[in-house]
Amino acid sequence: MTSLYNELNQRIPVTLIKLDNNQVSQNKPGFIQISSTDTDKQSKQLINHFKKLNIHPKKHSKEFRVTDDAAVPIGTTLSAAHFVPGQFVDVQATSNGKGFAGVMKRHNFKGLRATHGTSISHRSQGSTGANQDPGRVFPGKKMAGRMGGETTTVQNLKVIRVDTENNTLLLKGCIPGRKEGTVFIKDAIKNMVIDGQNKFRKLGSDDKHTAQALPWGVDSLPFPAATEEMAKAFPQVMQAPARPKKNDE
């Protein structure tokens, strides 16, 4: 993580994400598979699979659901320019494992009292609430156990800057996982509005949609995808404009 300042001199915490040679490895109606990070350490089955596609074997593969008209040819290398500064994305990764943790750290329990005879059990969970009937603890009960190390999704992160020269994204805020980890990024499924506000910008009558929900400063999204060849025609650095004050909106 690092931070940057926009034209209004506002400090924004950002996370840098590198797109490591992302290529389309499968293409079927309704979804595409994207593979990244070249490697020579793979199973023979996957190596043969990539050889048939004339693609260098990859370390990671992930399927993404798309519309039927968003077909991208196999072997296409995607660029960071596929994301538009100002849009919102969802980021999925494996969170940091924290080992065995008690209920106060894991589930934010308040613990037992610090007075009146409580002894050596100040941070315990207390009763689990089971009587003779049902005579057991139901699955999913909040108890002590392994914390972290799970697939976690952080939603509605704003794309602050796109660096096409270094093929890097700068997202506002933090994301799950460790440094040099692998993350999966997709368009936000909940927030395609102006900085979280329930407002819609009316488009012209010539557009096929009478209204479209896009963040402030974003007029359109690349469709079906922005390739490396397309990114060469874009500026080296593209940054989301600072949101104007309410009086100027």
TrEMBL record:
<dbReference type="GO" id="GO:0005762">
    <property type="term" value="C:mitochondrial large ribosomal subunit"/>
</dbReference>
<dbReference type="Pfam" id="PF00297">
    <property type="entry name" value="Ribosomal_L3"/>
</dbReference>
<protein>
    <recommendedName>
        <fullName>Large ribosomal subunit protein uL3m</fullName>
    </recommendedName>
</protein>
<comment type="similarity">
    <text>Belongs to the universal ribosomal protein uL3 family.</text>
</comment>
<dbReference type="InterPro" id="IPR019926">
    <property type="entry name" value="Ribosomal_uL3_CS"/>
</dbReference>
<dbReference type="GO" id="GO:0003735">
    <property type="term" value="F:structural constituent of ribosome"/>
</dbReference>
<keyword id="KW-0496">Mitochondrion</keyword>
<dbReference type="InterPro" id="IPR009000">
    <property type="entry name" value="Transl_B-barrel_sf"/>
</dbReference>
<dbReference type="InterPro" id="IPR019927">
    <property type="entry name" value="Ribosomal_uL3_bac/org-type"/>
</dbReference>
<dbReference type="InterPro" id="IPR000597">
    <property type="entry name" value="Ribosomal_uL3"/>
</dbReference>
<keyword id="KW-0689">Ribosomal protein</keyword>
<dbReference type="GO" id="GO:0006412">
    <property type="term" value="P:translation"/>
</dbReference>
<feature type="region of interest" description="Disordered">
    <location>
        <begin position="117"/>
        <end position="136"/>
    </location>
</feature>
<keyword id="KW-0809">Transit peptide</keyword>
<keyword id="KW-0687">Ribonucleoprotein</keyword>
<feature type="compositionally biased region" description="Polar residues">
    <location>
        <begin position="117"/>
        <end position="131"/>
    </location>
</feature>
